[in-house]
Amino acid sequence: MNKSAIDVPAEAHNRKVIRSKADLAINGAPPAFAEPLHVGRPNIGDRQGFIRRVNQILDSEWLTNNGPMVQEFEQRVADRLSVKHCVAMCNGTIALEIAIRALGLDGEVILPSWTFIATAHALYWQGLTPVFADIDPDTHNLDPQAVRRMITPRTTGIIGVHLWGRPAPIEELQTIANEHQLKLMFDAAHAFGCSYKNQTIGNFGCCEVLSFHATKLFNTFEGGAVVTNDDELAQAMRLMRNFGFAGQDNVIYPGTNGKMPEINAAMGLTNLDSFDEFIDANRANYHAYAESVAAVGGINLLPYDPDCEPNYQYVVAEVTGEFPGTRDELIAALRAENVLARRYFWPGCHQMQPYRDLWPHSGLLLPNSQAVSERIIVLPTGNALPPAAAQTIADVLCCYAADHQ
Ligand code: T4K
Questions:
Q1: Cα-flanking dihedrals φ and ψ of residue 227, to 5°?
Q2: Which of 18, 122, 256, 334 is the most exposed place for a label (fewest CB within 10 A)?
Q3: Ligand 1 probe mutation, 124, 125, 215, 376, most atoms within 8 A of CB
Q4: CATH of the domain at 258
Q5: Residue 235 pLDDT exceeds 90
Q6: Which of 219, 244, 273 marks a domain boundary?
């Protein structure tokens, strides 16, 4: 067993004692946690503050269509990220689609396969061809050399994804985009509140897309936004998210309905008030895992880059060949303890439909994406994680490893 796992007596935290294989739930013992621990448990700020805002909305009888809460929310997000425009949307996927369209992307767009499926679907849904480039196995982000290899005469853009809140190789991608006259945008769904070299995520490429889904560090129930410093782009996206209306009775573009309702903005404003506390809680969870889980042989916690300020949204570990068991067996052992760890984003977008049938051999060009997808494990975090949960999870991993030596 690793040192820190035995340093803190389980009894002191009133948590299940896990010292031998007989204590593991997969071997018939009761689970370590009475309630499931989720990866995406929502962070919820001040309830009374939220309810006050909901009452304000109800009293005002203004429920949606760019109401005062949405406008305040957009301003607060823009201020927080030091970016000129925040265009709030109903979710991150529609925000991606609108950004893709407003940028005039066409033909082929290069993106990682190692991302949530929405990044690829947003392109496909807009009639574009997603072209998957491989990742750097150490950072899980796009490998610029792999991006170069995927450029064809039909390529019009690149979508970098700041996976797990770790900035994509921003400068290298911008250089490639400039050399080939491509538009560069970022899927920053994981990176709200992160920064790169002291500049907030939200200020890179032509625009960056945020998700405020319930499972994100910062949520508006459902929601998203595109942030940009480009006035014209922001104006085009505002038009697109509201059916193309340029004023009452005046439609000048075939737009869609991407509007954020007032109640979502109320949740956003409430959660913005507590956002720093959410980060603090996640940072503490991350460090607790780093001390305990990372000390288990064969389980490596993904570190953050020194020149990036993370939001600690995800606790991501890799199960290496050194660990005496497969990733999926380990996930099953954790699930038995009520630890609902995930294997995001297995098996990779290229292995999901329609892309798997369209390009059945694309995996040959994505060896790093495939390898990472087989060894990843995402652990529960968030401000509802019980105290010492990371330690208990480390104890499970240690005993599991000892049991399978
Ligand atoms: N780009 C990237 C890189 C993304 O990661 C995402 C979304 C997007 C774009 C698109 O943004 P949105 O259109 O979603 O705004 C979840 C989320 O649905 C998705 O938003 C997120 N990424 C993705 C990483 O995770 P699932 O399939 O894992 O959701 P689900 O229902 O399994 O929930 C995860 C866990 O959270 C569950 O174990 C239960 C727990 N949970 C969930 C909800 C909704 C709760 O405890 N309470 C809740 O209200 O996709």
A1: -115, 140
A2: 256
A3: 215
A4: 3.40.640.10
A5: yes
A6: 273
CATH number for the domain that contains residue 320:
3.90.1150.10
Same domain, 104 and 13: no
Q: Does the beta carbon of 119 sit less than 6 angstroms from any atom of ligand 1? A: yes
Alpha-carbon distance of 113 to 141, in angstroms, equals 10
Do residues 381 and 165 lie in contact, with contact meaning Cβ atoms separated by under 8 Å?
no
Whether the Cβ atoms of residue 84 and residue 234 lie closer than 8 Å to each other = yes
Reported as a pLDDT band with limits 50, 70 and 90, residue 394 is confident
Q: How much distance in Å is there from the Cα of 41 to the middle of ligand 1?
A: 10
- Amino acid 14: pLDDT: 60
Q: Which of 273, 296, 321 corresponds to the end of one domain?
A: 273
Domain limits for position 141: 47-273
Q: Which two tokens stand for residue 342?
A: 């995930």
Helix (H) or strand (E) holding 131: strand 129-133
Mutate which of 116, 219, 222, 379 for ligand 1? The one with the most ligand atoms within 8 Å of its CB, which is 116
Q: Is any atom of ligand 1 closer than 6 Å to the C-beta of 91?
A: yes
CB 258 near ligand 1, within 6 Å = no
Q: Is residue 318 part of a domain?
A: yes
Q: 17: pLDDT confidence band, cut at 50, 70 and 90?
A: confident
- Number of structural domains found in the chain: 2
Q: Which residue has the higher pLDDT, 63 or 322?
A: 63
Asked if residue 161 has its Cβ within 6 Å of ligand 1, the reply is yes
Window from 8-22, 103-117, 143-157 with minimum mean pLDDT: 8-22
